From TrEMBL:
This is MFS transporter. Keywords: Membrane, Transmembrane, Transmembrane helix. It comes from the Bacteria. GO terms for cellular component: plasma membrane. GO terms for molecular function: transmembrane transporter activity. The keyword Membrane applies. It is found in: Cell membrane. It comes from Leucobacter edaphi. The chain crosses the membrane at residues 32-57, 69-90, 97-115, 127-149, 156-180, 186-204, 250-272, 292-311, 323-342, 348-366, 387-407, 413-431. It is a multi-pass membrane protein. The keyword Transmembrane applies.
């Protein structure tokens, strides 16, 4: 049955394609899509922005590493928990209002965090920041997938490119502003998010992506450019639709993979500044916010490059599941090596940057797998998946510090590697639920068929 649907959609896609037509360019997008992508990049800056200033905050606010890493935990946990309900919100107040509400909350709480005088207050305001982030990100992913030209693969690559740019620029901005004051990155984010808010307010004149955010194929087609028909208004989601979505075996499996993968991801991201600074101190080298910002800029830049340029090629040639298995194995190896060479500054720096190459491919492939794996509305699928993965990421910083204190500096990395191995096991066990996403798409016709079958 799945094959019949795929073949039917492939024929329909071919029938509507002019013989001389060329594949749509990822850079040819509606202005509103670019506005959302810019806001996504700024939003993801908030994840890596605090990385270079963690050690600085520890000194300035007299906090332990375990306390400062809670800046990640409060942010990610509230982001993840809220994402289970964001589709319910967006189907009631609309896509544009949801996007703007999220951005406004980020501006407010980033400003309050920068004005705080205790680590507890900063942790609390980062939680509020996470709520705004959830409202924005979960809606933005579904909106971009529905509104961007070139199909869902192009849209996901664009979204992951924004993610990569944000993760790359965040540490650089955090390091530059953090070298002046630890408060600088928070106020800087507030200003950039205010600019993004204005851009969305001005450029997204009507909620053209509303149908797409609801997740139907018809909504996506309307948002992609039917001039004669307005997109249908999405049905209102139930309050607990995000939790109910986990009954879908494919989504549950991929969410579990994402949970354990993101644990390893955020062990690397949130914990690494501390062993890097300790290794530099042992060599008598000054390694402050600026230097840490450069290291994680390299990491984020590597992630951005592979998410845009490498991931699409690999997934088309090899298929999604083989790419996921390969990247997860590579990330596990990086984490093991980080634990072994935790006292070597050059090795730590190089392994962090190299891991970005693998993480970029992994993020894009995993997001694409979620979008293709189920027949659930995109808004529900993306919110549920994102909620689970962010909660997995939230746990990592909370436990990495105490593990390091109790068992040694290298052990958090090994625990992260073990978590990645669990995600590999889950992916293998779930094979029968994910067989339909495991095929490579060698031609444009086959790719079009797979995308439309996933959208239907």
């Amino acid at each position: 049955m799945a094959a019949t649907v795929t073949e039917t959609h492939a024929r329909e896609a071919s029938a509507h394609r002019s013989p001389a037509a060329k594949p749509a360019s990822i850079f040819r997008q509606p202005t509103a899509v670019w506005a959302i992508a810019f806001a996504c990049a700024v939003s993801f800056m908030g994840i890596g922005l605090v990385d270079p200033i963690l050690t600085l905050i520890s000194r300035e606010l007299r906090a332990t590493p375990s306390e400062t890493m809670l800046l990640f935990t409060s942010y990610l946990f509230i982001t993840g928990a809220a994402m289970f309900f964001t589709n319910w919100v967006s189907t009631r107040i609309g896509v544009k209002a949801t996007l703007l509400s999220g951005l406004a909350l980020v501006v407010l709480f980033a400003s309050l965090a920068g004005a705080s005088d205790s680590v507890g207050a900063v942790i609390g305001f980062r939680a509020g920041w996470g709520l705004g982030n959830a409202l924005f990100i979960s809606t933005a992913l579904a909106a971009i997938v529905g509104a961007a030209t070139g199909g869902s693969r192009q849209a996901i690559v664009l979204y992951e490119a924004a993610l990569g740019v944000g993760l790359a620029v965040g540490p650089l901005v955090g390091g530059a502003l953090g070298s002046v004051s630890w408060r600088g990155p928070f106020f800087g984010t507030a200003v950039l998010m205010a600019i993004a808010l204005i851009a969305i307010l001005v450029l997204l004149r009507k909620p053209a992506t509303a149908g797409a955010a609801g997740g139907t194929a018809e909504g996506a087609a309307a948002a992609a450019g039917s001039a004669s028909q307005a997109p249908s208004k999405p049905a209102k989601a139930s309050l607990f639709s995000g939790f109910a979505a986990l009954r879908n075996r494919a989504l549950l499996s991929l969410s579990a993979v994402a949970f354990f993968y993101n644990f390893g991801f955020f062990v690397l991201l949130a914990y690494s500044p501390y062993p890097i600074e300790a290794a530099a101190h042992a060599l008598g080298v000054t390694f402050g916010a600026h230097e840490l910002g450069l290291v994680f800029f390299g990491w984020g830049l590597a992630l951005a490059i592979t998410s845009v340029l490498v991931a699409p090629v690999l997934t088309r040639r090899l298929g999604l599941r083989p790419v996921l298995f390969t990247m997860l194995a590579g990330i596990a190896v990086c984490l093991v090596l980080l634990g072994v060479f935790v006292d070597s500054l050059p090795v730590l720096v190089w392994l962090v940057v190299i891991s970005g190459l693998l993480l970029g491919v992994m993020n894009t492939a995993l997001t694409e797998a979620v979008m293709e794996a189920t027949d659930l509305p995109r808004g529900v699928a993306s919110s549920t998946y994102s909620g689970v993965r962010f909660i997995g990421g939230a746990i990592a910083p909370a436990v990495a510090g105490p593990i390091a204190v109790a068992f040694g500096d290298g052990v958090p990395y090994w625990v992260g590697a073990a978590s990645i191995l669990v995600s590999i096991l889950v992916l293998a066990i779930a094979g029968k639920h994910l067989a339909h996403i495991g095929r490579p798409h060698e031609s444009a016709e086959e790719e079009a068929g797979a995308i439309t079958a996933g959208d239907a």
